[in-house]
Amino acid sequence: MSQISNKIAIIGSGKMGDTIISGLLASGIAKADQITASDPSAKRLDYIKTKHGVHVTTDNHSAVKAAQILIFCVKPQNAEGVFASVKESIESDDLVISIMAGVTLRKMEGWLPLGTSVIRVMPNTPSQVNAGMSAIARGSSVSDDQLSVTQRLFSSVGRTIVLDEKHFDAVTGLSASGPAFIYIVIEALADGGVKSGLPRETAIELAAQMTLGAAKMVLETGKHPAILKDDVTTPAGCTTDGILALEEGGVRVTLIKAVTEATRRAGELG
Ligand SMILES: NC(=O)c1ccc[n+]([C@@H]2O[C@H](COP(=O)([O-])OP(=O)(O)OC[C@H]3O[C@@H](n4cnc5c(N)ncnc54)[C@H](OP(=O)(O)O)[C@@H]3O)[C@@H](O)[C@H]2O)c1
């Protein structure tokens, strides 16, 4: 990926901040000396500096002043305080990107100087292994170039999609919370394998790689999941008996409710 010329500040160097820095460096879109990471914990910053070789600081102001792209990765409850404390250091042509769940563009634009370019991104934890899914929504002052650079930045940790912000609670409920649902599915499938006599480690490997393969089939063939399911289901074969058990257990309703409940909660947090 071709390198961008801007300097980047990561405000909040926890799990997601660390993940984003890893992706930026691994993809070559930014070099370590272009990135400044801030965090209140000197111990955390030691870890980040040792791992990535980026600049680090406990002072959000100096991180913001050193950069033109400011990626806010603090917890949502810290958002207003952090913006209030750094807004004097934000220049009119800086790009503010927030990955904070539930913190709306309207709120952020209200906390920042009029005309500040603000983009909201909802990534997920598989970004750690370059298989993330990031939804991107643009604020009212964002240029096409700023949107495009944001897509490039988050493409460094997986796929991106540009969406209207009204869908962000659903995105949070589906692709941000979803990995937790799928880990439970993988664990349960592996339990089934163990019950059928497979060693635990083998069962987990089979379940995880099969899940990865099924997801790739959906994305790469473009076929509807129902068609792909039919392809696996031989008349009077084994899969159809397994599907009957799944339907008896209410798997569809359960997963639909998992997503809608997480979406409802995302709306409450916002
Ligand atoms: N984890 C996910 O799956 C996920 C997915 C999508 C979006 N997000 C969003 O990403 C954001 C970060 O999540 P996370 O999982 O990375 O959380 P996290 O690991 O807790 O990281 C947040 C970091 O921000 C630091 N921090 C606190 N106050 C700060 C301040 N005033 N200035 C600078 N840094 C400060 C925290 O330090 P202390 O721990 O010392 O307070 C911590 O290191 C959240 O808003 C979350 O909604 C997370």
Can you tell me about this structure?
The chain has 270 residues and is of the alpha/beta class. The chain has 2 domains: 8-168, Rossmann fold (3-Layer(aba) Sandwich), CATH 3.40.50.720; 176-269, Orthogonal Bundle (ProC C-terminal domain-like fold), CATH 1.10.3730. The chain is 53% helix and 14% strand. The protein is built from 12 helices and 8 strands. It has an 8-stranded mixed beta sheet with strand order 3-2-1-4-5-6-7-8, with helices on both faces. The longest helix has 22 residues, at 200-221. The structure holds NADP nicotinamide-adenine-dinucleotide phosphate.
Question: Any chance you could write out the topology, listing elements then pairs?
Answer:
Layout lengths: L7 E4 L3 H13 L7 E4 L3 H11 L2 E3 L2 H6 L3 E4 L6 H8 L8 E4 L6 H7 L5 E6 L9 E7 L5 H12 L2 E5 L5 H9 L1 H18 L4 H22 L3 H8 L5 H11 L2 H19 L1
Parallel strand pairs: 1-2, 1-4, 2-3, 4-5, 5-6, 7-8
Antiparallel strand pairs: 6-7
Helix pairs in contact: 7-12, 8-9
The chain binds NADP nicotinamide-adenine-dinucleotide phosphate.
